Amino acid sequence: MCMFMVGLGVLEAQVGHMVVMGVLYALLWLVKILKLMNQFKELQSIKEKLAGHVAAQHKFTDQSKSLCAAGTRVEIQADILEWLSPQHRTKEHIFWITGIAGSGKSTLSATVVENLRMKHTPVAAQFFISRNIPETINPAKIIPTIAQQLAEFSPVAADIIHDVLNWGFPPREKQVEELLLAPIRELSKLCNAVIILIDALDELENAADNVKKILESIAPRGCHLPENVQFLVTSRPEHWADISKSKTLELTVFTQYALETESSVDEVHNFIIARMKEITRWNDWPSDNEVQKLSDKANGLFHYAATALHWIEEQIHNRGTASRKQVFEKFTQMGIVQYRTQTGVQVNYAAFSMLLGPFLCLMSH
């Protein structure tokens, strides 16, 4: 280093200060470029080593998930953002959202991810599980997929994951510590928040066993994680009920929020109105009475309302606007939703499938 500085002094004496500064500037850029090239090479190596262990379509954008309509799920969105804020941080590390099928959990999850991105606090990783995408229901792919995203999120995480993979792909029992917790501990020193979202745990293969296994591997260690490491997960209520009775899990790291369909009735009604307004060619149709009929049938279920609107719109598009009342009348005559307060929503699948055809994703959130 001394010789380098002496050399710079000699160069400056011979060619002038501005030239030396130009050389230094060029050298700094060269170092930066070489560093970026090395990071890119390291990331490519990680992806190669994780190939076959990662679910490709794991983001909400990969699955074309919709976002919450304006004015809907405002309270829960605010609660989540408050829980994630630095002012709120406690020993709770897992925010668990529960709701029956069709209550809008995945739409809410997608909206949270997008809102955080807009606020320049992006999630470090997201994993949306869907029975329509078989590779996402494989529990063995969750941790490696999250690890790859952590490596993409920060070179610091990439360094740790790269070092681990240089010794070979770790066995299942070591993956949580080596590919997940170790990288996020280091990330927590550099970021205001390290947020990881896993949506629709209940759609995992053999969910009854695997949901508990995944959470058992994270929750005990959660007590020792930095305060700014936070997980958001969603599932149907029965999985939270099972976990809440567990004697092996550290339940103090959890906070639970239930999406109640009863309290969603007004929000679904507003959602229907908002979606109808987007279809400008319908002008003043449907009437307030027809909107109310659709809202009553949806019974607080966002997925039902969205699927119904999709079907109605396509039928009218195919048949022409003159068929609007006929299409709507046919739709409202179908007995579709039977609400059960204790067991959730039971759907007359035969009638619903015949009516909505390919647009109904029966097990979607």
Keywords:
365 residues; alpha/beta; 3 domains; 5-stranded parallel sheet; two-stranded antiparallel sheet; 7 strands; NPHP3-like_N
Could you explain the architecture of this structure?
- Residues 335-365 have low confidence and may be disordered.
- 54% of the residues lie in helices and 10% in strands.
- It folds into 3 domains: 2-50; 74-259, P-loop containing nucleotide triphosphate hydrolases (Rossmann fold); 263-359.
- The chain is globular, with a radius of gyration of 26 Å.
- The strands form 2 sheets. It has a 5-stranded parallel β-sheet, with helices on both faces. It has a two-stranded antiparallel ribbon with strand order 6-7.
- The chain has 365 residues and is α/β, with parallel strands linked by helices.
Structure summarized in a few sentences:
The chain crosses the membrane at residues 15-34. The protein is an alpha/beta fold and 365 residues long.
Topology:
Layout: H1 2-15, H2 17-50, H3 74-84, E1 94-98, H4 105-118, E2 125-128, H5 142-153, H6 155-165, H7 172-188, E3 194-199, H8 207-222, E4 229-235, H9 237-244, E5 254-258, H10 265-278, H11 288-298, H12 302-319, H13 324-333, E6 337-340, E7 344-347, H14 349-356
- CATH fold category name of the largest domain: Rossmann fold
Main beta sheet strand tally, sense and closure: 5 strands, parallel
Number of domains: 3
Q: Count of DSSP helices?
A: 14
Question: Unreliable runs, pLDDT <50, ≥5 residues?
Answer: 335-365
Q: Please bin the fraction of helical residues.
A: 40-55%
Head-to-tail CA distance between termini: 61 Å
Structural class: alpha/beta
Q: Taking Cα atoms only, what radius of gyration do you get, to the nearest Å?
A: 26 Å
Q: Would you count the extended β strands for me? A: 7
User: How do the SSEs run, as a string of H and E?
Assistant: HHHEHEHHHEHEHEHHHHEEH
Q: CATH class of the largest domain, please?
A: Alpha Beta
Query: In CATH terms, what is the architecture of the largest domain?
Result: 3-Layer(aba) Sandwich
Approximately what portion of the residues adopt beta-strand conformation?
A: 5-15%
Looking at this structure, what is the CATH superfamily of the largest domain? P-loop containing nucleotide triphosphate hydrolases
Order of strands, widest sheet: 2-3-4-1-5
Shape, principal axes of CA atoms: globular
Calculate the mean pLDDT score and round it. Answer: 78
